[in-house]
Amino acid sequence: MEAPVDRILDGLLKPNVILADSFLPWAVSIGGRRNIPVASFWTMSVTNFSIFYHHQLLLSNGHFEANFTEQGEEVVNYIPGIKPIHVKDLPSSFNSKRQEMLPLLLQVVSQLANKAQYVLFTTIGALESQVIEVLQAELPVPIFTVGPTIPFFDTEFKTNQLSPNYLSWLDDQPKDSVLYISQGSFMSVSKEQLDEIIAGVHSSSVRTFWVARENVSLLTNGIGKRGIVVPWCDQLKVLCHPSVGGFWSHCGWNSTKEGAFAGVPFLTFPIGADQFTNSKQIVEDWKIGWRINKESEKLVKRDEIAQLLQSFMDLDSYEGKEMRRRAMEIRNTCLEAIDGGTIQ
């Protein structure tokens, strides 16, 4: 892509700045040749960035390319600004079994830190303030938080507006009674685990809204009459619907931000990449969720899932009320950042 973009710039007035995804490192090269400053846009959490940036600390402490099976419970408590984190909750690229992407990630972070003129983080500053303060002191380039960078403009529900069938279904459900389930677009669970999830959801009798590109008929038959399955939906609008009381998520960073903005508690089911670290932030740091798959390589059985869903969606329990209260506090933090109308 570098050469075609270079040719396009040949026919344009010189831009004031190039804004580019951090994973397009050639943009920095173009900016350097043309004397145009580059703002590198990091699309994961600041916490994930800082872990990669401080990878030498992992190396010196024996946690770089670690065996997550044997070392998973060991605690990493030496990365500045980051609360203690188990090895199993580090980005999966540091797992000796999943290290294919690690060289690229370290290259991207190095170039961002040393060659870009600005760094933009898609986060809410108040949610990762300690990490941001450390990086502001350590990085040789200025950094800005520009979160939450989600489509929050159209989350109101208007009675005079035609709605998709799935929103009409939500309209008919009691307040906070529906668990929204999404395992993301790219990585998925095994067939064996999916069978256990379907059976557990059905056994729980919890109302569920399930979005899945595949296995729609299988899921529809499996969850019964107390749920709905769709291949796609406006996720943020669904999460903000009054009837939705929880979010079963793979914990991709965009989904994490949308759930935080909606003020709903999470059931986390991370699979890979940055998702384990995001799940740790949700469950341990922000305390607005529970983790389903506590052992990433262990099958979670249907009875455990059913019991967990029933407890999670119990709106009268003290633990559930406290978790939902904290989730609303996180939502207010997001709204304050947006209402400010400026980069934090």
TrEMBL record:
<dbReference type="Pfam" id="PF00201">
    <property type="entry name" value="UDPGT"/>
</dbReference>
<dbReference type="GO" id="GO:0008194">
    <property type="term" value="F:UDP-glycosyltransferase activity"/>
</dbReference>
<dbReference type="InterPro" id="IPR002213">
    <property type="entry name" value="UDP_glucos_trans"/>
</dbReference>
<keyword id="KW-0808">Transferase</keyword>
<protein>
    <submittedName>
        <fullName>Putative UDP-glycosyltransferase 87A2-like</fullName>
    </submittedName>
</protein>
